[in-house]
Amino acid sequence: MISGPSPPFISFLLKDNQIFKWKLNGTEISPKSGSHYSLSGGNLRISHLNKDQDAGTYQCLASNSFGTIVSREASLTFAYLENFKTHRRGSVSVREGQGVVLLCGPPPHSGDLVFSWIFNEYPTFVKQDTRRFISQETGNLYIAKVEPSDVGNYTCVVTNTVTKTRVQGPPAPLVLRSDGVMGEYEPKIEVQFPEVVHVAKGSTVKLECFALGNPVPSITWRKVDGVPFPRKVDMRKASGVLEIPYFQQEDAGMYECVAENSRGMNTVKGKLSFYAPPHLIEKPQDVQKLIDDSLVWECKATGKPKPSYRWMKNGENLESAERVQVANGALSISRLTLADMGMYQCVAGNKHGEVYSNAELRVIAVAPDFSHNQLRSQTLVKVGGDVLIECKPKMSPWGVISWRKGSEPLRESNRVSILNNGNLRIWNATKSDAGLYTCVARNQFGVASSTGSVTVKEPTIITTLPSTLDVTVGESVVLPCQVSHDPSLELKFTWFFNEQLIHFGSHGGFFEKVGGQHSAGDIMIRNIQLRHAGKYTCAVQTKVDSISIAVDLVVRGPPGPPTSIHVEEITDTTASLSWRPGPDNHSPITAYTIQARTPFSLGWQAVTTVPDVVGGHRLTATVIDLSPWVEYEFRVLASNTIGTGEPSKPSKQARTKGTSPKVTPANVSGGGGSRSELVITWEPVPEELQNGPGFGYVVAFRPRGATGWMQAAVPSAETSRYVFKNESIQPFSPFHVKVGVYNNEGEGPFGPVTTIYSAEEEPGRAPTRVRAKSLSASEIEVSWKALPWNASKKRVLGYELRYWSRSEREDTASVQRTVGNQTSTIIHGVKGSTTYYISVRAYNTAGTGPPSTTVNVTTKKPPPSQPPVKVMWNTSNSKIILNWEQVKALENESEVTGYKVLYKKNRHSRPNVMETNTTSVELALPTDEDYIIQIKPFGEGGEGSSSRQITIPRIPGQWRAIGSASKVSTLSALSTIALSFTARTSL
Fold first, then answer.
1. pLDDT tens digits, residue range 489-501?
2. What are the residues whose beta carbons fall under 8 Å from the beta carbon of 424, sequence distance 6 or more?
3. pLDDT tens for residues 427-477?
4. Per-residue model confidence (pLDDT) at position 431
5. Are 937 and 944 in contact (CB under 8 A)?
6. How far apart are CA 255 and CA 273, in angstroms?
7. Which are the contacts of 394, defined by CB distance < 8 A and separation ≥ 6?
8. Are residues 479 and 522 in the same domain?
9. Where in this chain does the record put each Fibronectin type-III domain (predicted)?
């Protein structure tokens, strides 16, 4: 089997006649007939491999007509594994509890090995755990603490991972000594990793650590810098192995293995050093150059240690010389010759490997050629202008350039010059410079020419003079831009605002082109704003030249917002303010306005100041008439002759100082409450009028006619009620009451005195002579005798009726109240044919008095539920005759005693009512509007259901005056035909 790097690879596209060569250890291999070397398409085949003859370093060389390149090197090694030499091993004798190391001693080999141990007989293998460990570095077996079960024969098994061959060593017996048991002792680390381990980027590194000890030590790992292990790190096999896959730069550092038991602790440290073989990040590319050109190739690679560079040409190392410089990966060659052609290779390497990059250099020699770069067919220039005519033929080596004007050689002058690079320059052109120009190029390989014309045009001149325009916000202005120019050239006008291109149609529609003439590019700015002030530039361009003119636009407007608003000093009612002026926008500031805002105000409000009018020269003012103990924000607005500007940013909140309160509660009243109580109420004073913290009320009261006041403090600003209770208070006694205010700063005034009555007692007697009568199926009339209202303090404010049906409980009774000395009322909405119980009691603010004797009444039967039907109408002698069918009441309904005919002239007028006890009625003919009619039956139970609405159309005016029988007959016939039963909502 063969071990070593992958075969070499050549990134070189070979043409015909390619040649391949191979080197072994720097010496060329010569495949000959009968040799065990052979080539196949550039690949080297080796038959009958011989370890001593064929092992070594191989490199491929590939050549063709363009040059030679070499591959990277590849190493060929041979893997093998010999047998163990020793056929017998002596026994290992240890005490129970002692640690032991069984040595493997692998035989001679090449290639990676894997170790395992057989216990007694195959296939019983030693299993690794916290007590037993097999090192894959040495092959030794470590038992941290020997137990009786460990006694037996141990055999080391070695496997070559390349050849897959396996050999076994001689068995080693492990026996226990009989001279006692080993006592406890601290860990002793037997398996250690090197002090420095070099690890390649992206590889996997495994560190081994195992200790002997009694009790069995625990193994832990840590990074000395304290950085925790990433998730990719695998600590397995009872922590005896630390495995770090995909090794990167951040994984490098000092690692520590800690072995610990109850007797002590031991540690071992080692450093993981990161390295990376070279990796190319910038490679030279194939190039084609002209003779005498220069070449620069850059080659860059990453790696650790930092790679060094060398260059090769056609397989040979390249050194710096007169024209060739090699430094820091860069190759430069000046004044190229044909001999510089070939294949070049950049080799970047460090001690961990090399990488190759290939590139081809071609150097060409050609006769002059204008086929890909003709002179411009026409070159335009203005009178007095400069022009450059480029002449760039392809030729190698560079030759001689000459010029002709027309058919004559061009003569140079102080205005006409042929530059070193062959281009033609003409300064301060005149009309005489127009014509055909020919560039002629020559070298040793040939001659070529190219011709183009020069046309001289009149220059473009802006006739508008630079100016400064002064406008006011909201106005419109035209910015002029007019020119004189060569009529054969087209003009292009472009405008800039503060050097930014103006896009017409955007910018909110403020900018508009108004230059209607070919030689005018005027624009208009409509409804100018302050932001439109600045520099406007009109640029005019033709194929020959470009010029521009600037206009400064000054926009006058209201002042900008003042700045740095600061409250200098604040008292209970005043605040001294200062500020700095904002921009005056080209119109002097004439005045300042100060506004304030509090948590209690609706937005910003103007305030009173000293002085009353703050002139534009002032930057301070005092605000007066403020409320004490209120947080204020202030802002300032500046004005000039044009208007008032935007307000400043608000000042920081500032609270006025506190003072004793001045405002007393409003709407002091009261009354009511429970027996022996005086109830006093008021509207709380708003927070902005409390003038300080600790706000409260002082309630003063006395019986009417008394001289001294009783007082009580109410310490809550939100409270609006105070109740004084005393058994000596007589019902409905008048008291004089006043409410004052106070806060932490002191006491305020009392409000005006008002009279409030104490709580009264509920009425003490029940109404008498209670009577109840059913008016209809839904109404009951109730009457009673009023109670006398005397000086007993038991007022009667009205009467309360309670009523309930036979199927209901009294505690669920419905309630209806009257007001004043009323002695009768009607209960609406009751059910028909139902017995109701009714009681009456008087009430006042203290409550209700005792109930009267309960009376009962049975309501009348419900009214007829069937509406009148078959309603018909006709006309006769200027009247309408209505007829309908008799309505018959059901058994549980009250009898029909008559009908109500409701008619009105439109849907919005009040109806007229006509009653009849028959089933017909006569109405006058409608004249100016239609009739809308409904019919209802009624009885003692009330009104029944209504018929549908009937619409009777109005009679035309000329027919009302006709009295002949024939006309009336005709009218009657028409009216009968117009009978309508249109359904309407109930009248």
1. 999 999 999 999 9
2. 388, 389, 391, 403, 410, 416, 417, 418, 437, 439
3. 999 999 999 999 999 988 899 999 999 999 999 999 988 889 999 999 999
4. 92
5. yes
6. 11
7. 366, 368, 369, 370, 372, 373
8. yes
9. 561-659, 664-761, 766-862, 863-958
- Give the C-alpha separation, 333 to 290, whole Å: 12
Residues 857/773, Cβ–Cβ less than 8 Å? yes
The partner residues of 876 in beta bridges, in order of sequence, read 879
Determine the pLDDT at residue 962.
Answer: 24
Does 732 share its domain with 679? Answer: yes
Check: CB of residue 846 under 8 Å from CB of residue 772: no
Provide mean pLDDT across the span 396-401: 88
Residue 967: pLDDT band (50, 70, 90) is very low
Same domain, 178 and 193: no
Helix ranges restricted to H, 118-275? none
Q: In 3D, which of 705, 696, 689 has the Cα closest to residue 753?
A: 705
**Is the peptide bond prior to 215 cis by the omega test (within 30 degrees of 0)?**
yes
Mean pLDDT of the chain: 87
- Upper half-sphere CA count for residue 166 (Cβ side, 13 Å): 9
Distance CA 226, CA 239 (A): 18
For residue 907, pLDDT over 70 is answered with: no
pLDDT at 819 over 50: yes
Query: The whole model's pTM is what?
Result: 0.46
- Show the tokens assigned to 422: 């062959």
User: Which residue, 756, 785, 816, sits at the end of a domain?
Assistant: 756
In this structure, the number of other CB atoms found within 10 A of the CB of residue 613 comes to 11
DSSP class of 474: T
Burial class for 327, CB neighbours closer than 10 Å (0-12, 13-18, 19+): exposed
Alpha-carbon distance of 244 to 230, in angstroms, equals: 9
Contact 62, 18 (CB under 8 A): yes
Pairing, β 400-405 against β 408-409: antiparallel
Residue 974 lies in a domain: no
In order, the DSSP letters of 577-631 are: EEEE----TTS---EEEEEEE-TTSSS-EE-EEESSSEETT--EEEEESPPTT-E
Q: 701 is written with which tokens?
A: 């009261």
CA dist 97 and 99 (Å) reads: 7
Six-digit token pair at 394? 């392809």
Whether residue 160 is contained in a domain is answered as yes
What residue type is assigned to position 473 of the chain? V
Residue 232 maps to a domain: yes
What residue numbers bound the domain in which 485 lies?
A: 461-556
Give domain status of residue 872, yes or no. Answer: no
Kindly tell me the burial class for residue 636, based on how many C-beta atoms sit within 10 Å of its own C-beta (0-12, 13-18, 19 or more): buried
For residue 379, what are the contacts with CB-CB under 8 A and spacing of at least 6?
387, 389, 452, 453, 454, 455
Residue-level pLDDT at 8: 44
Radius of gyration for the alpha carbons in the chain, expressed in angstroms and rounded:
60
Q: Which two tokens stand for residue 709?
A: 């006041």
Helix H or strand E encompassing 966: helix 965-977
Question: Nearest-CA neighbor of 480 among 545, 536, 440, 396?
Answer: 536
691 and 744 fall within a common domain: yes
757-785 residues labelled b (16+ CB within 10 A) or e (exposed): bbbbbbbeebbeebebebbbbbbbebebe
What is the spatial distance between Cα 28 and Cα 39, in angstroms, rounded to a whole number? 13
Instruction: Say if CB 169 and CB 158 are below 8 A apart.
Output: yes
Instruction: Give backbone dihedrals phi and psi of 523, rounded to 5 degrees, phi first.
Output: -130, 155
Kindly state whether residues 35 and 57 are assigned to the same domain. Answer: yes
Question: Given 723, 756, 789, which residue is the final one in a domain?
Answer: 756
Tens of pLDDT along 295-321?
999 999 999 999 999 999 998 899 988
Query: Are residue 445 and residue 470 in the same domain, yes or no?
Result: no
Task: Report the distance separating Cα 220 and Cα 982, nearest Å.
Answer: 102
